């Protein structure tokens, strides 16, 4: 079996075992680039609040409102980062893969394909131009997932997979 086929089969088994967790992690992958784009345009966060309160979009925002939008977006991104880490951790705990590495199968290639390649391709088709900042923003979930997996490998098998599998390594 080739390497791609082996990865695909490992990922399929892990996704079935993890049930809803893989969809939760994928939703965070999709949400994170929107949060980063809002960090570049903090007025969007304020206008979202106006929309939720039933008001129309404001064309002019004060500097204080922009600052508040920036700080609120930073807090939301920090929350999403923690939730992403916990989601990846829960994915590996539920997947219970018997392998040499903890991060088996690695999730970062799927994170690169979903928001990175597919999301940027949709953006290119809809707008007609390639935005390098948007390209980098779309690849951020890949980096976050990659570093979350490396952190879990360093923390140890007992922490990630739980004490029930302590005698398996």
What tags apply to this protein structure?
169 residues, mainly alpha, globular
What's a concise summary of this model?
The protein is mostly helical and 169 residues long.
Describe the structure in your own words.
- By secondary structure, this protein is mainly alpha-helical.
- The protein contains 7 helices and no strands.
- Helix 4 crosses helix 6.
- It is globular and about 55 Å long.
- 25% of the residues are buried.
* Tally of DSSP β-strands: 0
Series of secondary-structure elements, N-terminal to C-terminal: HHHHHHH
Low-pLDDT windows of residues: none
Distance between the termini: 26 Å
How would you classify the helix and strand content by structural class? Answer: mainly alpha
Strand content: under 5%
Determine Rg (CA atoms, Å).
19 Å
Q: How would a textbook summarize the main sheet? A: none
Describe the global form: globular
| Average pLDDT taken over every residue | 81
- Please, how many domains? 1
Number of helix segments? Answer: 7
Helix content: over 70%
């Amino acid at each position: 079996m080739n390497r791609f086929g082996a990865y695909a089969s490992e990922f399929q088994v892990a996704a079935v075992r993890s049930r809803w967790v893989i969809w939760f992690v994928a939703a965070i992958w999709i949400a994170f680039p929107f949060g980063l784009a809002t960090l570049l345009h903090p007025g969007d966060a304020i206008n979202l609040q106006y929309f939720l309160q039933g008001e129309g979009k404001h064309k002019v925002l004060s500097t204080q409102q922009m600052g508040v939008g920036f700080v609120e977006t930073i807090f939301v991104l920090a929350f999403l980062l923690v939730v992403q880490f916990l989601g990846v951790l829960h994915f590996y705990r539920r997947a219970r893969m018997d392998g040499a590495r903890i991060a088996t199968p690695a999730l970062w290639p799927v994170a690169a394909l979903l928001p990175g390649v597919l999301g940027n391709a949709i953006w290119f088709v809809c707008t007609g131009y390639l935005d390098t900042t948007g390209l980098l923003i779309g690849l951020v979930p890949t980096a976050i997932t990659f570093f979350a997996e490396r952190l879990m490998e360093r923390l140890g098998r007992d922490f990630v997979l739980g004490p029930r599998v302590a005698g398996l390594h």
